[in-house]
């Protein structure tokens, strides 16, 4: 669920014109070697920011998260610092981020309450981006089609998105949003 904060900062960078959807980003060796779920970017092959966002949200790509973090902050470590400052600004009192992807780290944690604050802020502050990316059911990149891991998108027509997660340390996690009526 860390990718919600990564997306929040990516959307903020787009809004502030520090990043553009069509901008090409070269994936580092670190991004390419990211363990866990991936969008399968290739080292040093340029990828559009729009594609990296879809890879991060729809495919839950850890490689996409790292590539975006490095582009925005210069390093994933510096990006984690940005994440923690934003978490504090949003009132997330029980969260600490150590990386952009949510890969396990003993000092990386959050709470359901804090994730509620973050999800609410993401929808409120970036409604167009939220509508564009989070309800997408599948995405194809590099010849590989991957389904959105949020299966509620198929089971309930009112569900309009958010994020799933899984690590051995945290187990299965979900933040979901639905819209019923107005």
What is the radius of gyration computed over CA atoms, rounded to a whole number of angstroms?
Answer: 15 Å
Largest sheet entry:
2 strands, antiparallel
State the share of residues found in helices, binned by percent. Answer: 40-55%
Strand order of the largest sheet: 1-2
Could you list the spans in which at least 5 consecutive residues all have pLDDT below 50? Answer: none
Overview of this structure, please?
The protein is of the alpha+beta class and 182 residues long. The chain contains 8 helices and 6 strands. The strands form 3 sheets. Strands 1-2 form a two-stranded antiparallel sheet. The chain is globular. The two termini are 26 Å apart. The mean pLDDT is 96.
Supply the key terms.
182 residues; alpha+beta; two-stranded antiparallel ribbon; 8 helices; 6 strands; 42% helix
Task: Record the SSE blueprint.
Layout: H1 3-15, E1 24-26, H2 29-32, E2 46-48, H3 49-57, H4 62-73, H5 76-89, H6 112-125, H7 127-133, E3 138-141, E4 144-147, H8 152-155, E5 159-167, E6 171-178
Antiparallel strand pairs: 1-2, 3-4, 5-6
Helix pairs in contact: 1-4, 1-6, 3-4, 4-5, 6-7
Write a concise synopsis of the structure shown.
The chain is α+β, with helices and mostly antiparallel strands and 182 residues long. 42% of the residues lie in helices and 17% in strands. The strands form 3 sheets. The chain has a two-stranded antiparallel ribbon with strand order 1-2. A two-stranded antiparallel sheet has the order 3-4. A two-stranded antiparallel ribbon has the order 5-6.
